[in-house]
Write a structure and sequence with these properties.
The chain is an alpha+beta fold. The chain has a domain of 182 residues. It is built from 18 helices and 16 strands. The strands form 6 sheets. The protein has a 4-stranded mixed β-sheet with strand order 6-7-12-9, sandwiched between helices. The longest helix has 33 residues. The chain is globular, with a radius of gyration of 24 Å. The two termini are 48 Å apart. The N terminus is likely disordered. It binds protoporphyrin IX containing FE (HEM). The site of protoporphyrin IX containing FE (HEM) has 26 residues, from helix 12, helix 13 and helix 18. Protoporphyrin IX containing FE binds next to helix 12, helix 13 and helix 18. Its cofactor is heme.
Length: 559
C-alpha cells in the first residue's frame, strides 16, 4: 500500500528548499546542498548511504523526479480548531493511538495533523525515524508539555530535565546520567530493586495462601493486581531515589502514598486535553480542567518535598558525623544522597529532578507490568520458555540479581515485546535541526515531527505477525517485516524498539525501569504460574500513557 518510499537524490541548490524558515532557530543558511531521500541535507555532497536493490547504487527518482513540498504531505484537515472540536466530540484524546493507526492506514506512512495549537508531522517507518533522529543535534528537543511548564512557572518551582532545553538541559542531564544511567550506578541500585521485588512476591505469596483456593501449597488466587503493582512501583522508586522503604506492602499502607498514586493518575489524565489548549488562558479563566491539573501537581510536589526534606536531614546528620553521604558508612543511600554528595546540582535542581523522576517513574512501570502479566498469562508456552530460562539462570547466579538477569535474556526481550505492543508513550517527538526529506517530502528544520510507536509496533510492514506476543523475535537475527529489518543491518535496523526514546535525550529512568520490571517478572515467574480466564485483547486508553481500559484479572497459582 505504501509505495511512497521512493529513494531520491535531488540537488536543490538555489531552489525552494533553501533558506526555509526555521521556527525555532531562525532561518536555515542559504547554502548549496543536496538532499537524499529519507535523507539529511548534506553540504554539497551526496550521501550514498543506501544502494538500490540491484546493488548498483542508482536511486529511483520520485514519480516526477522532485522532492515534494511540505504542503503536499497528506493531512487530516487544515483547520486546527475544526480538528480540535472533532477530537472532543469523538473522544479521540483517549484513543489517539488508534486514531494514528487508522490515519496511517488511510494516508500512508507520513501525514500532517493540526489540532488546536499543535501542528505535527507524523511518521512510523523505522528508516524514516532513523532519519529524524540523525538530525536531532546536540540538544535534542521534544514537544514541550506546556501545561507542566506553566505549573512550574506559576508556582515558582525550578524545572527538571523533562522540561528544560539547550545547554541548561544538558548540564543537568549529564549529572543525572552518572547516578541513574551508567553501569556503575545500575550496580549500586540493582540490589535495592531486587529487595523490593522479593518483598512484593512474599506479600503476594502470603495473600495467595491466605485468600486463595485449592490445596495448601498449590493455592490459586484470581485478582486485579494493578493496585499492588502501583504500590510496588512507588515502593521501588522511593527506595532507589530516596534510599527509603515506605512500607507499602504492609497490611495498612499509608494514605499519603495512596494520595500520591491518585495525584499522578489525575495529573496524567488531565494532560492530554491540555496539549491542544493554551494553559495560561485556562488559568486566567479559572477553567476546572486547569485547576484539577495544577492541584494534582501540587500534591505530587508536596509528597516529594516531604521526602526530600527528610532525606536531606538524614543525610546532613550523617555528613556532620563525618561519613561520606552517598555511601553513608558504605551504604548506598539512593540517587538523592548521591546527588547531594556530589554537590554539582543546587538543592533546587535536585528537588526539581527528583520530583520529575518520582512523577515519571510509577505508572510508567506499573502499567507495562500489568500488560506483561496478562500476555504471559494468555501465552502459556511463552511463559514456560521464559520461566525455564529464568530458573536456570537463577540457579547459576547464587542470589546475585545482576548475574541472574544477564543469564535470562528472554526477560529483557519480554519487556521489549510488551513495550512494542503497548508503548507507554505512544510517540517520541523531535524538532530536526536541519531540513530533512522523509518519504520524499521536504521537512523544514524546526518542524515538530512525531515517531508514532504504537502504529509502528503493530504494523505488518515492520514486524512479522505483529499481533503475536513473541519475545523471541528480538533474540536472533530474524528479518522482520518488509520495512523493519532486524539485526541484518537493513533499513531502520535499531529503530524498531524506541519505547524509551532515543540518544542523549532518551528516558533517563530507563535503567531503573528495565531492571525494576525484569526483576519483578523474574521473581513472579519463580513463584507463580500465571493464567487468564479470557484471551480477548485488552482494550486500551491513552491518558498521556497507554493503559488498559479495564485492568486485566490474573490468576496466580503457587508453583
Ligand atoms: C517503562 C517505563 C518507561 C518508559 C517506557 C519511559 C519512556 C520515556 C520516553 C519515551 C521518554 C522521552 C525520551 C525521548 O524524548 O527520547 C522519557 C523521558 C523521561 N523519562 Fe521515562 N519512561 C519510563 C520510565 C521512567 C522512569 C522509571 C523514570 C524515573 C525514574 C522516568 C523519567 C523520565 C524523565 C525524567 C524523562 C525526561 C528525560 C530528558 O528529557 O532528558 N521514566 N521516558
Amino acid at each position: 500500500m505504501w509505495t511512497m518510499s521512493v529513494q531520491v537524490i535531488v540537488c536543490v541548490r538555489g531552489q525552494g528548499t533553501c533558506g526555509s524558515r526555521n521556527v525555532l532557530f531562525g532561518v536555515v543558511p542559504q547554502r548549496g546542498f543536496c538532499m537524499t531521500a529519507a535523507g539529511t541535507v548534506i553540504d554539497g555532497k551526496v550521501e550514498a548511504r543506501r544502494k538500490g536493490k540491484d546493488g548498483s547504487g542508482v536511486r529511483k527518482r520520485g514519480v516526477d523526479g522532485r522532492v515534494r513540498s511540505f504542503e503536499e504531505i497528506p493531512n487530516t484537515g487544515r483547520s486546527g480548531w475544526v480538528n480540535l472540536v472533532k477530537f472532543w466530540r469523538e473522544g479521540r484524546f483517549r484513543q489517539l493511538h488508534k486514531h494514528m493507526e487508522r490515519t496511517f492506514k488511510n494516508l500512508g506512512p507520513i501525514y500532517r495533523e493540526h489540532v488546536g495549537t499543535q501542528n505535527t508531522v507524523n511518521i512510523m517507518l523505522p528508516s524514516d525515524i532513523s532519519e529524524l533522529f540523525r538530525s536531532e543535534g546536540l540538544h535534542p528537543q521534544r514537544m514541550t508539555l506546556q501545561a507542566w511548564a506553566t505549573h512550574r512557572e506559576t508556582r515558582q518551582h525550578s524545572k527538571g530535565v523533562f522540561l528544560k532545553n539547550g545547554e541548561e538541559w544538558r548540564t543537568d542531564r549529564l549529572q543525572l546520567n552518572k547516578e541513574v544511567m551508567m553501569s556503575t550506578a545500575v550496580k549500586r541500585f540493582l540490589p535495592l530493586l531486587d529487595e523490593v521485588a522479593r518483598d512484593f512476591c512474599q506479600m503476594l505469596r502470603d495473600k495467595v495462601e491466605r485468600e486463595g483456593k485449592g490445596e495448601e501449597g498449590r493455592r490459586s488466587l484470581n485478582i486485579d493486581p494493578s493496585p499492588d503493582l502501583f504500590r510496588f512501583a512507588l515502593e521501588a522508586s522511593c527506595h532507589v531515589l530516596y534510599g527509603e522503604r515506605i512500607g507499602l506492602f504492609s497490611s495498612s499502607p499509608s494514605l499519603e502514598s495512596q494520595k500520591f498514586i491518585w495525584a499522578v493518575e489525575r495529573m496524567l489524565a488531565t494532560t492530554p486535553p491540555l496539549l491542544y489548549l493554551p494553559p495560561r488562558l485556562l488559568l486566567l479563566i479559572g477553567a476546572p480542567l486547569w485547576t484539577q491539573h495544577a492541584t494534582a501537581w501540587d500534591n505530587i510536589f508536596s509528597h516529594a518535598e516531604a521526602r526530600i526534606q527528610r532525606g536531606y536531614q538524614r543525610l546532613s546528620s550523617t555528613l556532620s558525623r563525618g561519613s561520606t553521604v552517598g555511601a553513608a558508612g558504605g551504604q548506598y543511600t539512593g540517587v538523592l544522597g548521591q546527588l547531594m554528595e556530589k554537590g554539582q546540582l543546587s538543592l533546587d535542581l535536585i528537588k526539581a529532578n527528583i520530583t520529575e523522576m518520582m512523577a515519571g517513574g510509577v505508572d510508567t512501570t506499573a502499567v507495562p507490568l500489568q500488560f506483561a502479566l496478562f500476555e504471559l498469562g494468555r501465552n502459556p508456552e511463552v511463559q514456560e520458555r521464559v520461566r525455564q530460562q529464568v530458573k536456570a539462570s537463577w540457579a547459576q547466579a547464587g542470589g546475585d540479581p545482576q548475574k541472574a538477569l544477564q543469564g535470562a535474556p528472554l526477560l529483557k526481550s519480554t519487556i521489549k515485546e510488551i513495550l512494542r505492543l503497548y508503548p507507554v508513550g505512544i510517540t517520541v517527538q523531535r524538532y530536526p535541526i536541519r531540513d530533512i526529506v522523509i518519504q520524499n517530502y521536504h521537512i523544514p528544520a524546526g518542524t515538530a515531527v512525531q515517531a508514532c510507536l504504537y502504529p509502528m509496533g503493530r504494523s505488518a510492514e515492520v514486524f512479522n505477525d505483529p499481533q503475536r506476543f513473541d519475545p523471541g523475535r528480538w533474540g536472533d537475527n530474524r528479518v522482520e517485516g518488509k520495512r523493519g529489518r532486524g539485526a541484518d543491518g537493513g533499513e531502520g535496523a535499531g529503530f524498531r524498539s524506541l519505547a524509551f526514546g532515543f540518544g542523549a535525550r532518551q528516558c533517563v529512568g530507563r535503567r531503573i525501569a528495565e531492571n525494576e520490571m525484569q526483576l519483578l517478572l523474574m521473581h513472579i515467574l519463580l513463584s507463580f504460574r500465571l493464567s487468564v480466564s479470557s484471551t480477548e485483547d485488552i482494550d486500551t486508553t491513552f491518558t498521556l500513557i497507554l493503559q488498559p481500559h479495564t485492568p486485566p484479572r490474573i490468576t496466580f497459582t503457587k508453583l
